[in-house]
What we know:
The complex is a heterodimer of chains A (239) and B (441).
Chain A: E1 13-26, E2 29-42, E3 46-50, H1 57-64, E4 72-77, E5 80-81, H2 87-97, E6 98-101, H3 113-118, H4 131-141, H5 157-169, E7 175-179, H6 187-202, E8 206-210, H7 214-217, E9 222-227, E10 230-236
Helix pairs in contact in A: 4-5, 5-6
Chain B: H1 3-14, H2 18-56, E1 60-65, H3 70-73, E2 82-83, H4 88-97, E3 101-116, E4 119-128, H5 131-135, E5 140-143, H6 148-152, E6 157-160, H7 162-168, E7 178-181, E8 184-192, E9 213-217, H8 218-224, E10 228-233, E11 236-241, E12 246-251, H9 257-271, E13 277-280, H10 282-325, H11 327-335, H12 340-366, H13 369-383, H14 385-390, H15 393-396, H16 404-430, H17 434-439
Parallel strand pairs in B: 2-11, 4-9, 6-8
Antiparallel strand pairs in B: 1-12, 1-13, 3-4, 3-7, 3-12, 5-8, 6-9, 7-8, 10-11
Amino acid sequence: MSKTKEEVPEPVCVATVRDVTKVYRLGGQDVKALAGVSLELKQGDFVAIMGSSGSGKSTLLNLLGCLDRPTSGQYLLGGHDVATLSDEDLSRVRGRYLGFVFQSYNLIQQLSVVENIMVPLSYQIPVRPDGRELSTKLATLVGLAGRLDHRPSQLSGGQQQRVAIARALVNNPHVILADEPTGNLDTATSNEIMDLLDVLNKTGRTIVMVTHEPDIAERAKTVITLRDGLIQSVEQNWS
Amino acid sequence: MNVIQQLKLGFRSLMLHKLRSALAVLGILIGVTAVIWLVAMGEGVSYQAQQQIKDLGATSIIIRTIKPSEEANSDSGSRSGISYGLLRSDYDRIITNIPTISTAVPMREISRDVRRDEHVVPAQVIGCTPEYFSINRLPVARGRPLAASDLRGLENVTVLAHDVAERLFPIQDPLGRAIQIGTEFYVVVGVAQDRTAAAAIGGSFSARQYNRDVYIPLKTFQKRIGDRVITVRGGSFQNETIELNQITAVVDDVASVDASADIIRALLERYHKTVDYAVVVPKELLEQAETMRMMFNVLLLLIAGISLVVGGIGIMNIMLATVTERTREIGIRRALGATKGEIIQQFLWETVVLSGTGGLLGVAVGFLCGPTVQGVRLAIENFMPDVWSTLPSTIHQLEPRLAPWSIIAAFCISVGVGIVFGIYPAQRAANMDPIEALRHE
């Protein structure tokens, strides 16, 4: 990784969510997925979002991931108010400030490991000339040095998730958003992936993770529990 | 991403479904090949026609005798026979009255059997002047052409066309030997070179077959054969008097062809009660042929264009399937920062790879037009001789001519078709909701 020593004397605020609501219209009825959520992400945070299904955790993650705009409220990311951005600007903000890790890895099948890691770079302006070297470095970092030219179908689930994590790092994002990153993995592999996320967090990465497994959530520094579109509790883990 | 990366990515995405992509490529390939082949054949046919017309000469005006219709001459009295066609006085008037005409060559022809010993060949006996050979570009292969002295001296000499010479003298050298036309003997002084047929003129549909001619001096023709032709038709004698069958006038400048032709028409109109002549201007024929060629090409392009559109629909079809199948990929790319525009670009490049590959292969197959036509022709000739003999000579002699513009046009159209038919699927891909797309199984 390029930035292993990021010195953080005063934690910088990377994202601010202020009283955000999200209302869907379902069958002529308004459904409030988020009823007013506020939170602040500082650099180096490792937040786990928990909650039963329907609690609004996926909606919150979509909003944090700039895949959706809030109905009301403010979401500030990298100096932009996300609610006011156009579709194109939203794409640019995603590409610039965010890294995604999904439950089902979501790698592109026709591309090799290195090429998958490079995908976010192809949407960066200007184009980085050293994209391939950087991607190779990241693949090595996540422990896939010997599999650079493999296709996703030739890798195990844990290895695929490592590729996804490397891909989430390649644009040096402000926040890494992980949606049930261990949901499809066995316990041993889950622990390996969490160890990797831990290492990244220790080197200054800000990580927001949605999970429904308490033992996975325990490894985050902060656990936010949602219920009916509202924050029910915020717990700090000091391990 | 630069163009090469885009093309590479497009190619690899298409390789996910090899057969499907290959079929879409095939659709475009057939379209492009159709454009190139059809245009090449059209060009070949019109080139043939144009060559034949050019052989007549761009600066010449051909005036031919045509037999007036039966009703028109019924009052002239069938007892004494009918008299029609160009007159020797017409020739004199044309040569003296029209200053733009540099040469005029009178000609008289009749079908007669030509014999030598036991060989009898049906031939076209042509009475002409020495200029006839140069005007019609009829080089003499052996011996000499007719000379002015032959005409003055009313000599019984003859120049044989290639085929006639071959059939009358299969072994011997014809030069210096005698042949018989009617009751007269003529000494062969020359043999003309082999010559392909020229364009049909003067209301006759058959091309002018130079290879069956026997040339004798015009004056000799008048003296020995005469103007009167008696034929037996339906049990009664037909008695026709024709002085000249054709006058070929050559103008010194292409620009004055049309004006000179008009003067000739006016001149003939005054001295002929019935229209028993036709004025043919090869230059006009050439222009007509050119117009025909254009119309022909437009028609062929239309047909070929339709097949390209069909190919385009094939491309659209598979791209729509591809977009649906790769919904997940679209969602991933959108999440990782791709704008709608970049998604559109990606899928457009993919269609360009498809149609461009089809286009290139189509051009390659297009170049095989000549050999293919040759092969098909040989196959028909050897395995279906009955069919072969019924085909018109245009097909026998057809040489497809690849038109460079058609190759460029076909390729550009194919890529254009790819883009046009790729836009809708690409837009559909770009307009997907990224959240929905990511959830898609």
